[in-house]
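README: folding subset

This subset contains proteins for which both the sequence and a predicted structure token string are available. Records are stored as plain text. Below is the entry for VOC family protein (153 residues), shown exactly as it appears on disk.
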Amino acid sequence: MPPHPPKNPSSPFSSFSGHHVGIRVPDYDAAKAWYMEKLDFRVLQEWPYGELKLAYLCPPNDDNFHVELLAGPVPFPNEVLDDLGVSLQHGGYQHMCVHVDDVDEARAELASRGVDLIGEPFEIEDISRRLAFFRDPWGNMIELSQKLPGAGS
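--- output ---
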């Protein structure tokens, strides 16, 4: 990866930083259990919002990134796709990405936990990453990203 462009502290948006990604699911208890049992996520906070149940979930060793579950009836569910290439033809949310030290080890553990894996791992030299994809039971895709040896930031 190339060096990042210079930061812009004079921007009126200079306080922007990543916090969470929201994932809409039909079943709160099942989704919370899946993220906790399959990915070892931790529950930070739970609260109601109208007819929905919401929660912030944190990865096992990261307090700065959250998945926000937004759960309740879903009158317009997304199509569940089995192919990364086909998924790239759809507009809107495509996936969230989590960094891992070893894509193959993480993928093997996901497989042992019965997680739906999508395709095979692959490398993109332009971004110095090894990648693999899987999905939750509601079709939300998640990318595993490993920095290739010798890669910069």
